[in-house]
């Protein structure tokens, strides 16, 4: 809280700027408003998921079920909206999807807390259960005729501008939602006792219990919050791609965790920040974007993000070891 | 005044506490003593509300309650300072100090200004200054403890429980701690001092309660107790107090000769160790004792200096080198450095000596493993019927025996022990000392690092005192006693 | 009389000791038998047919080997998320050699050499990938979950770059036999797996390396203080998982007659699931080959049973997740009743 040295964040920002400058040097289209806006838009969904992952990692746990939760709440919401037309209103849909996600997340929290099971395994199980249940009992067909409010939402932009090709672009509303959620998460972590409790739980779980943090409440909150964000991200995703595909978002868990860790979050808990996570997500997205702009086949994307993750975590590991030996342990 | 009446607690078939009653008065330091497993920690947990007693009552002032919850306990002014201090390494000093009271007031928002104010007040009360925005994880141990005590004071504690507060502290730091405890006593705080260091209890205690087997074995004002009575009550038997000189004096043959050893923490250490000698090593915390042990065991790189082993130069670059030379090291922190808690006793015992249990094709032979483990269990009078049980199920003293067995089974020429009896009950302590004496008599050299002056004075032949990475004093023969070690230690700094 | 009583106590203790060490395995076996019986009843005996068992024997070795590799990594307290990526990359390397180096008019000798070349190249790929993981984890001290998360992306990415996302097909017949053939009615993959599992059992429970791996996972600091060369052990573990992954890759392409960069990505979570279900502790040091093999057989029976009952393919994931959570909750209650002392 006090004297936070945003050292890692500064390094990330620097890296991001260098990367952008390099790409801009080779292909000035990178700095075009259209491209920058589309980068922001690509950040929104992984970014929202990453905010939830940040919370879990801070508390010293891990959640890999959120893509399944996102897909389930999105798909179920869309199905419901199609059968109940009065639901066809974006706010309602987002709320519904968020609620479904929140409940599914709460189930994780109950299993983790009440049965004292390792979160990795619980969320592995619930992830498989939710995805399997969705595909086996709800449906496998892609919903292409989304509720009209979702289509409208995907087209709506703030500050519309004309880009060089005469096409109209602007700030997608999902980006605004992402930024608002990031701000809320930041304030939650830094300014509320709940947030400090999450840090405390990650730093020293036994101590947090002893000094009277309501562990049950905190854990329930964390997993519900992850579910809630997943629900929101899910519906925004469906709206962005303009269809609801129950197979979507699979495998995203590892990419999102990679971004969060790249953002300086410790996987053992207690260390990390919203700003770092946002930069981590941006770095991975820009990396992907750059390859296309540099004319490399998109297959290189995974190679690049793998290398970025290895270098990023390697750097962190090396720095923390150096710090330890300097302190004379 | 806080009064406990007839507190009992069972875990399955084990009676951890039976009908325990005691009174904690304001302005008094009450020492709670007992061997490991006597119920001390269960009693602390009852006071802090972590455990709910099966029966009995707790009376606080006029109010009588059956049991406490953690929040309850804090609200009523009970503060427990655990051995690990229960601090948050990733948060700042200010947050560590103020989180408790904010939680207690059920606040939702973090109020930074008030947090700092609270923290500063707490510091002032103890008359200390620590950087409030420093991360607690980066503070040295003694300062962490001060933060923990300061945090207890934030909430106007009426009772402060200190669980083995001195294990990680040096002599000077213990003095500083006692000064603070006396200050608190004057302010009318009740203090429950839990320890098994007799000497410290004698320095600070106004009243004693001694637990044995979950029951109060004796209780009363300090002047009714002397060390002999405390020991007898704790163990149920008397333990002789005189010096155990080697009945087999060192042969004069040199085993190990170290000259001008330099490393990050060692600044020119020279020493000589004879065959069958028990050499003590002490000093203020962090003066290089552990660094020397690690250097001799190949765990810390050495920049210069020479090690002569049986007259021949030896370079120890890895643990493997040390083991090949038959050097063994029983580390300081048994739980994190010595034991595989969830593995079986037999696996723990053979861990450093797999060659000896290999059968055909270099494969491990289960029957040989079993026999080997049983042999060493019996040799060290380890109380465990089944060597395939996990080490976690053993008591502290028996766990230390497992670590000893692991190394003794290699028949070491040099056995380095770092705090061999820390956290070991008095009965097991005696057993371990006897074993060491026997080993020395059989020709094993022992290098014992310890902060327990009585142990050093009674169970070594010679004591070296280290300071800032050098050996500064050597005490032997008639010159070696608790008093002289203490005198020399207080001459440092 | 007294003697008799003490003898009885001894027997009781012995039984308790045996059960105590292996209750998890026992519980798992009971569950497996239950699944078997339920499936037999539910399918009216169709489950109890040779073709069904052959199908099971053909399908489960791939997942089983990956799960055993996962178990080795978990022994050290780590995890290997890159196993499927390594399997695919090695499969691709082998596939490239077997298809591109084969001239149109093939002499049998030449086929033999390319086959051997492909297999060796796949294994070498596994070794290299494993060594990279090992270096990152043992030498550069990156936590296993992150290092292998990174290499997973890297290896998958490389595989995509090499093939451009295309599948490679058309392998020589002798190679396909290893993935689909039978020997006295027993599927070849099952035979290969049985041999491999035997070797792994010996490694895990009879060699110093296996024991040191478990000790390292139980407490790496204590392992260091016991003279175990922890980095070297870690390196060898990830090398081994790399080799096991490449074997899986060979098996996969031999069975499906095609190699693809992103094949079998669902295997990753399934392998973790199977390992945990088989009693491997994700925090390290605990687990057994027998447990993992039982778990994978149980899951495969569940899957093929549901298949016979015309459940959708996806319900398998659902029931696997349910099964995992169920076992964990049961274990939780059983352990709490057994050892409440630590509470």
Describe the structure.
Chain A has 13 helices and 2 strands. With 493 residues, chain B is an alpha/beta fold. Helices cover 35% and strands 25% of the residues of chain B. In chain B, the strands form 4 sheets. In chain B, strands 6-7-8-3-9-10 form a 6-stranded mixed beta sheet, with helices on both faces. In chain B, strands 16-17-18-13-19-20 form a 6-stranded mixed beta sheet, with helices on both faces. In chain C, 77% of the residues lie in helices and 2% in strands. Chain C has 343 residues and is mainly α. In chain C, helix 3 runs antiparallel to helix 4 and helix 3 packs parallel to helix 5. Chain C is globular and about 65 Å long. At the A-C interface, helix 5, helix 11 and helix 13 of A face helix 5, helix 11 and helix 13 of C.
What sequence of helices (H) and strands (E) makes up the elements of chain C? HHHHHEHEEHHHHEHHH
- The shape of chain C is globular
Q: Mind describing the biggest β-sheet of chain C?
A: 2 strands, antiparallel
- The assigned structural class of chain C equals mainly alpha
Instruction: Bin the strand percentage of chain B.
Output: 15-25%
Gyration radius from CA atoms of chain C, angstroms: 22 Å
Looking across the biggest beta sheet of chain C, what order are the strands in?
1-4
The first-to-last residue Cα distance of chain C is: 39 Å
On the 0 to 100 scale, the average pLDDT of chain B is: 83
How far is the N terminus from the C terminus of chain B? 41 Å
Give the SSE layout.
The complex is a heterotrimer of chains A (329), B (493) and C (343).
Chain A: H1 7-26, H2 33-58, H3 66-83, H4 90-114, H5 119-138, H6 148-155, E1 157-162, E2 168-172, H7 173-191, H8 193-203, H9 205-210, H10 215-241, H11 252-262, H12 274-293, H13 300-326
Antiparallel strand pairs in A: 1-2
Helix pairs in contact in A: 1-12, 2-7, 2-8, 2-10, 2-11, 2-12, 3-4, 3-5, 3-10, 4-5, 4-10, 6-10, 7-8, 8-10, 11-12, 11-13, 12-13
Chain B: E1 2-11, E2 14-24, E3 29-34, H1 40-48, E4 55-60, E5 63-65, H2 70-75, E6 78-81, H3 93-104, H4 112-126, H5 141-154, E7 159-163, H6 171-186, E8 190-194, H7 198-204, E9 207-212, E10 215-221, H8 227-235, E11 254-262, E12 267-274, E13 278-283, H9 289-296, E14 304-309, E15 312-313, H10 319-324, E16 327-330, H11 334-338, H12 345-350, H13 366-379, H14 396-408, E17 414-418, H15 426-441, E18 445-449, H16 453-459, E19 462-467, E20 470-476, H17 482-491
Parallel strand pairs in B: 3-8, 3-9, 6-7, 7-8, 13-18, 13-19, 16-17, 17-18
Antiparallel strand pairs in B: 1-2, 1-4, 4-5, 9-10, 11-12, 11-14, 14-15, 19-20
Helix pairs in contact in B: 3-4, 3-5, 4-5
Chain C: H1 2-42, H2 50-75, H3 83-100, H4 108-139, H5 144-163, E1 168-169, H6 173-180, E2 182-183, E3 186-187, H7 188-206, H8 208-218, H9 220-225, H10 230-256, E4 258-259, H11 267-277, H12 289-308, H13 315-338
Antiparallel strand pairs in C: 1-4, 2-3
């Amino acid at each position: 809280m006090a004297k936070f040295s945003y050292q890692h964040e500064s390094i990330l920002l620097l890296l991001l700027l260098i990367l952008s400058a390099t790409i801009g040097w080779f292909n000035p289209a990178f700095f075009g408003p259209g491209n920058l806006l589309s980068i922001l838009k690509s950040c929104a969904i992984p970014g929202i998921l990453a905010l939830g992952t940040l919370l879990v990692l801070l508390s010293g746990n891990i959640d890999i079920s959120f893509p399944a939760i996102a897909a389930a709440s999105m798909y179920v919401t869309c199905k419901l909206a199609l059968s109940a037309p009065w639901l066809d209103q974006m706010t309602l849909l987002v709320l519904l999807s968020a609620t479904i996600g929140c409940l599914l997340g709460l189930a994780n929290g109950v299993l983790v807390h009440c049965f004292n099971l390792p979160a990795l395994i619980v969320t592995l199980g619930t992830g498989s259960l939710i995805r399997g249940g969705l595909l086996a009992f709800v449906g496998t067909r892609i919903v292409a005729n989304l509720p009209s409010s979702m289509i409208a939402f995907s087209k709506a932009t703030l500050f519309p501008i004309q880009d060089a090709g005469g096409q109209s672009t602007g700030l997608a509303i999902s980006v605004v939602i992402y930024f608002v959620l990031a701000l809320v998460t930041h304030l939650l972590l830094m300014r509320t006792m709940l947030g400090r409790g999450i840090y405390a739980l990650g730093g020293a779980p036994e101590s947090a219990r002893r000094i009277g943090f309501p562990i049950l409440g905190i854990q329930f909150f964390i997993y519900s919050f992850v579910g809630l964000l997943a629900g929101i991200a899910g519906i925004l995703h469906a709206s962005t791609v303009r269809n609801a595909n129950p197979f979507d978002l699979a495998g995203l868990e590892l990419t999102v965790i990679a971004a969060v860790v790249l953002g300086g979050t410790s996987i053992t808990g207690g260390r990390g920040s919203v700003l770092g996570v946002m930069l981590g997500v941006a770095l991975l997205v820009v990396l992907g974007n750059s390859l296309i702009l540099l004319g490399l086949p998109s297959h290189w994307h995974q190679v690049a993000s793998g290398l970025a993750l290895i270098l990023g975590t390697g750097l962190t590991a090396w720095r923390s070891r150096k710090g330890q030996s300097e302190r004379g342990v | 005044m806080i009064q406990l009446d007839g507190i009992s607690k069972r875990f399955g078939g084990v009676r951890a506490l039976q009908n325990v009653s005691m009174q904690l008065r304001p302005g008094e330091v009450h020492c709670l003593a007992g061997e490991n497993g006597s119920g001390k920690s269960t009693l602390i947990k009852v006071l802090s509300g972590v455990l709910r007693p099966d029966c009995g009552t707790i009376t606080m002032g006029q109010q009588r309650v059956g049991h406490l919850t953690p929040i309850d306990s804090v609200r009523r002014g009970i503060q427990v300072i655990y051995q690990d201090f229960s601090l948050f390494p990733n948060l700042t000093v200010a947050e560590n100090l103020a989180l408790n009271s904010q939680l207690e007031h059920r606040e939702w928002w973090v109020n930074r200004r008030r947090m700092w104010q609270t923290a500063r007040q707490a510091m002032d009360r103890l008359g200390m200054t620590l950087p409030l925005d420093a991360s607690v994880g980066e503070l040295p141990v003694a300062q962490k403890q001060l933060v923990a005590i300061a945090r207890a004071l934030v909430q106007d504690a009426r009772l402060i429980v200190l669980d083995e507060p001195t294990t990680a502290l040096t002599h000077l730091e213990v003095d500083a701690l006692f000064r603070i405890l006396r200050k608190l006593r004057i302010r009318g705080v009740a203090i429950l001092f839990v320890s098994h260091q007799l000497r410290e209890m004698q320095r600070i205690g106004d009243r004693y309660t001694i637990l044995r087997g979950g029951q109060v074995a004796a209780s009363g004002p300090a002047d009714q107790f002397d060390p002999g009575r405390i020991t007898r009550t704790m163990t149920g038997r008397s333990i002789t107090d005189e010096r155990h000189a080697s009945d087999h004096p060192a042969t004069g043959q040199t085993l190990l000769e170290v000259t001008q050893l330099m490393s990050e923490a060692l600044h020119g250490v020279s020493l000589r160790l004879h065959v069958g000698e028990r050499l003590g090593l002490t000093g203020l915390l962090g003066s290089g004792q552990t660094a020397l042990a690690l250097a001799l065991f190949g765990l810390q790189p050495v920049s210069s200096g020479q090690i002569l082993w049986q007259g021949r130069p030896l370079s120890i670059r890895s643990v493997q080198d040390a083991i090949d030379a038959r050097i063994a090291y029983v580390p300081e922190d048994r739980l994190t450095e010595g034991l595989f808690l969830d593995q079986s006793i037999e696996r723990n015992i053979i861990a450093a000596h797999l060659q000896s249990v290999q059968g055909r094709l270099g494969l491990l032979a289960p029957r040989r493993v079993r026999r080997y483990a049983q042999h060493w269990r019996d040799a060290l009078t380890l109380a465990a019927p089944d060597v395939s049980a996990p080490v976690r199920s053993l008591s502290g003293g028996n766990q230390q025996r497992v670590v000893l067995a692991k190394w003794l089974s290699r028949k070491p020429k040099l056995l380095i022990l770092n705090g061999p009896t820390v956290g070991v009950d008095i009965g097991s302590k005696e057993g371990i000392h006897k074993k060491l004496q026997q080993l020395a008599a059989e020709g094993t050299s022992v290098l014992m690092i310890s902060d327990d002056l009585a142990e050093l004075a009674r169970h070594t032949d010679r004591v070296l005192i280290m300071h800032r990475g050098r050996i500064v004093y050597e005490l032997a023969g008639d010159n070696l006693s608790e008093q002289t070690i203490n005198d020399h230690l207080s001459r440092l700094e | 009389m007294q003697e008799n009583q003490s003898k009885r106590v001894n027997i009781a203790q012995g039984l308790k000791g045996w059960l105590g060490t292996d209750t998890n395995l026992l519980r798992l076996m009971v569950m497996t038998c239950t699944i078997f019986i339920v499936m037999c009843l539910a399918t009216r005996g169709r489950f109890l047919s040779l073709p069904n068992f052959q199908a099971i024997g053909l399908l489960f070795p791939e997942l089983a080997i990956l799960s055993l590799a996962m178990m080795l990594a978990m022994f050290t307290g780590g995890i290997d998320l890159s196993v499927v990526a390594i399997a695919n990359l090695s499969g691709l390397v082998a596939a490239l050699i077997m298809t591109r180096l084969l001239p149109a008019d093939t002499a049998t000798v030449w086929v033999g050499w390319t086959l051997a070349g492909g297999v060796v190249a796949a294994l070498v790929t596994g070794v290299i990938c494993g060594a990279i993981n090992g270096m990152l984890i043992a030498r550069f001290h990156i936590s296993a979950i992150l290092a292998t998360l990174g290499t997973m992306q890297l290896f998958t990415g490389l595989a995509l770059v090499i093939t451009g996302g295309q599948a490679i097909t058309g392998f020589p017949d002798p190679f396909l036999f290893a993935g689909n053939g039978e020997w006295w009615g027993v599927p070849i993959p099952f035979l290969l797996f049985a041999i491999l599992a035997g070797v792994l059992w010996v490694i895990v429970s009879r060699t110093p390396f296996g024991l040191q791996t478990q000790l390292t996972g139980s407490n790496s600091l204590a392992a260091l203080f016991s003279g175990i060369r922890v980095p070297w052990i870690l390196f060898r573990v990830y090398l081994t998982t790399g080799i096991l992954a490449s074997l899986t890759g060979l098996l996969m392409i031999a069975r499906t007659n095609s190699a693809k960069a992103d094949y079998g990505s669902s295997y990753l979570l399934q392998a973790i699931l199977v390992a945990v279900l088989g009693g491997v502790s994700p925090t390290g040091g605990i687990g057994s080959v027998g447990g993992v093999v039982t778990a994978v057989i149980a899951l495969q029976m569940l899957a093929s049973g549901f298949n016979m009952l015309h459940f959708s393919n996806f319900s398998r994931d659902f029931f696997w997740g349910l099964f995992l959570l169920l076992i964990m909750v049961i274990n939780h209650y059983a352990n709490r009743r057994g050892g409440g002392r630590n509470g």
